[in-house]
Amino acid sequence: MTVDMSNVLCTRSHEYIIQEGDVLKIGITDFAVEQLGDIVFVELPEVGTAFEKGDIFGTIESVKAASELYLPVSGKIVEINEKVQEDPESINNDCFGDGWLVKVVDFKSDDLNDAMYYDEYKDFLEQEEE
Amino acid sequence: MENKRTPLYEEHVKLGAKMFPFAGWEVPLQYSSVKEEHLAVRHNVGIFDVSHMGQVFVSGNDALSYLQNLVPQDISKLVENKASYSMLVNEDGGIIDDLIIYRLKGRYLLIVNASRIQEDLSRLISMKNSYDVVIDNRSEELAMIAVQGPKASDLVEAIGISKTDHPERFSIKELNSVLIARTGYTGEDGFEIIVENKDAVDLWKKLVAHGAVPVGFAARDTLRLEASYLLYGQDMDEQTTPIEASLCWAIPRDKQADYAGKAIILNQMQTKNVKKKLVRFKMLDKSIPRHDYRIYIENQDMGKVTSGGFSPCTNTGIGLGFIDSKEPFAEGTKIDIMIRGKLHPAEIIGKPVYNRK
């Protein structure tokens, strides 16, 4: 699946957000995937759970370690990607497409203000490296 | 303190390794994918830079009686060119370090953990007393490369060491200035080749040129965990006895010579009166146990995971841990691991999840 990267917002904790109408699709960035390595387990919340911005909404485990997932917006989980729970490697293969994690509704649009466009995020990563 | 670098540091960087600090050294965590590196060792052959480990030679007229006094293993039965797994134990039976002792011509070689070299040397020196021995720590001048996997022997032959010169399993050979041991930490057939620092890069490059897959410390950990090899500092420490750590197989009952902790260790072996007991388990769901997670039995907190992770060969979470009980738990006993506030089902297993055919 090809994704128009100009619609992708990213956070400093390496989650991404793609807005599709009233729904936000959330996943982890290609940079996060590269850092994690082989992903072998994903724990996602139950549909219907409400979270505040910055709450831990799940866990991703690679062969090496467990990493927590932070929700970049306040809102309610309307759908989880059951396919990545069956096949965690799909996150390694296509994090922005088939490897999405959750969809959120009833979010606060203001919460998106501090997210970066993908190009800005790339610059941010370069600065981090220095 | 600045981390030390092995003579192969530049090679790791060139291969694109992610480096990380381990036991005072800067070592490769992974080169590409941990899973692929792991499976390369299981199905083909991988190489590891294990130059961080310590090599201490013991020689002199009293070398044998000195070592007999130092470790539970019966070194009087160790013949030339053979290896023996043992441990340094303190007066309370606690494990100072685990090690392999190789008997060479006229001297012994002790290979010890990098994280414990200082404690090991202190112990070796404090136990010297009036023994006529020379303790020669050559850890800083020697490099070591492990070649592991079903194709290890073919690879070693390909770089110019003919199979007639290969040591047998759990043995060692001295070929000119190279020491080649048939030992490892992966559960596979393989070698550990010890060379002078200056010769390490050449050897490494030759192995890579002949198709060996470089393997980092992350896969080294998943490999040893599948084979249920213990890691010092996680699965054992000075508060753990060899009996608690299920190392009875390395404690001869009939050894005549005395050694530190002998009475306590033999007593524990006989009475089975221990404070805790090592268990080996696998998860029954898809979750992954990690170091320090708690172990529950019938909803009671009974101990903790000391090593845990994902097993690429079985696609399950597996682990080692200690249960605060002197009773051994039978194979098949259901336990739970507390992971992020929830209990996840697991089961005690009798054998390691990986056994070489």
- State the CATH class of chain A: Mainly Beta
Q: What is the H/E string of chain A? A: EEEHEEEEEHHEEH
- Rg of chain B, Cα atoms, Å: 20 Å
CATH class of the domain at 4-53 and 140-226 in chain B: Alpha Beta
Tell me, what's the shape of chain B? globular
Strand order across the largest sheet of chain B: 11-12-13-10-4-14
Tell me the number of strands of chain B.
Answer: 20
What can you see in these coordinates?
The complex is a heterodimer of chains A (130) and B (357). In chain A, the strands form 2 sheets. Chain A has a 7-stranded antiparallel beta sheet with strand order 5-8-9-3-2-1-10. The mean pLDDT of chain A is 94. Helices cover 22% and strands 35% of the residues of chain A. Chain A has a single domain (8-107), classed as Beta Barrel (OB fold (Dihydrolipoamide Acetyltransferase, E2P)). Chain A is of the alpha+beta class and 130 residues long. Chain A is built from 4 helices and 10 strands, in the order E-E-E-H-E-E-E-E-E-H-H-E-E-H. In chain B, a hairpin with a 2-residue loop joins strand 7 (95-104) and strand 8 (107-112). The longest helix of chain B has 13 residues, at 197-209. Chain B is an alpha+beta fold and 357 residues long. In chain B, the strands form 4 sheets. Chain B has a 6-stranded mixed beta sheet with strand order 11-12-13-10-4-14. A 6-stranded antiparallel β-barrel of chain B has the order 15-18-17-16-19-20. Chain A binds chain B through residues 37-38, 40-41, 43, 59, 61-66, 85, and chain B through 29-30, 33-35, 38, 218, 222, 286-288, 290, 309-310, 312, 315, 317, 340.
